[in-house]
Amino acid sequence: MTGGRTSDGKPRWLVGAARTVRSSGRLSALGNRAVGGVQGNRTLVDVATRVFAFSGGVPLIYLKGGVAVADVPNPERLPVVLVNAVGAAVEAIPGLIEEVAGLQRETLGFRPVLLVSVPCFREVRAQGWPMELVVPQQEWDFEQEWEDYLAGRVAMIATRYRTWGSVGVVDGRLEPMGRRVLQQLATYRPWEASFL
Amino acid sequence: MGHLTRLLAYAAHLPAEVEPYVLSLSQAVPVVAQFGYRYEYLPSHGALGMTSALWQPLFQERLIETVGRVRPRVVVFDGTHPYRGIDAAREVHPGVRWVWSRRGMWKPGLNGDQLAKSAWFDEVIEPGDMAAEADKGASATAPAYRVGPVTLTDREDLLSRAEARAALGLPAEGRIGLISLGAGNINDTSRDIGAAAAALRAAGCAVAVTDVAIAAAAHASDVHLVRAYPLARCYAAFDLVVAATGYNSFHEVLRLGVPAILIPNAGTSLDDQAARATYAAQRGWALAPEAGGLDDAVRTMLSYGADMAAAAQHADPGNGARAAAERLLAVAVGDVEGGRV
User: What pTM value is reported for the model?
Assistant: First the structure.
């Protein structure tokens, strides 16, 4: 059995293929198409997903992780976490960013995407994170309801950035349970979770 | 920033009943709020660290959503490489008219394939270039509606020397030279920024820079950080400007009559900055010294810069932003139906 499988039972060909693909942005992009191309066939979708798009339980994506994880090997495996700070006041943003940055330094276990309704490019750029900016509710004057617009953006972020989780912000701080989940990532490594 | 500045120049010449709305990939986009315009930000693939293959569907999705919600009459794309997704947005929103604001001076032999994307647009407007005679790029002979060189700031917008120095927090007296060459090390005299600073000091000029990091790293105490947008309004504060020759910087210094030493950025992928600098020097509008020639150039410019700047202003055909805005209006009301000039 050891010739065809790794010590934890995974097929060697699959592990090797996955490693090759994940180390290449180009092949990963091809993989996205491959996963789509075999839709309808449960077995092929399963294989293609594991080879091309996932590392353990984490969707793989090349996305900036920030200065705190710059030296982490294979940062594309780190879970992407949406920090939803829509509605947070501009004066709360620096403290929030420092809170998230501190957690990231402690855990070296996630990549934040900050969603805000006030511009804070300079502060976020200093951390090296992606940032999404939405139209603030008080400035909204479109036909669509603002809540639907925001929901659409959150859905888009989940799809395009392949977020592993989402953490809200209350009174300028990470909501407590979300903070605890992020703290788990110091020792819980989703990309090491076995699915094979 | 150059894209935003050109678009703001067009917007400034639109009638009051037209409401400009900005969607930008630039993290400098909040500057448009000071002009009273609303804006949205769409992260570029560079800002996200994402491959362009993964980013393009994101761009397309966001563009389609934004155009559908804002419902503009005209969308103006400023750039030299229209992104995939514009074509899809056009199909989804067929009632919207699309204009490509496409500056010239492409490096010869490059980017010609992009010209086919003119078909995605109802009109192509080319903001003019004072160095257009030296334009050997693929867009030089491509069909477009050509207007004069476009700047956001006009001569009548300039502050006086005293006003400009006060606005920037600069000393009222003494010579000051502005260095606007992008990022770099001001203490390293073997590189452009450091060499320019040394040359200015040798000629008795204080030094002003626009980059926070450059100012923070400066060992000398006579380096002033200047922050304003558009900084061109304050150009009278400076006795001379050492600038790169991107579209906006080049035309701001020449159109606004600032004695200029031009140092092209050789690292651009498409913009032929060297051709602009060489042409301006040949016409006697500015100096474009070779490496090692900055000391002489600064001394020359302090003596004869006003005459050279006047020559540039004499050659200026006037701001093309008004003509561009009028053309945009014509596209909006349907007076232009694929009939490019």
Answer: 0.88
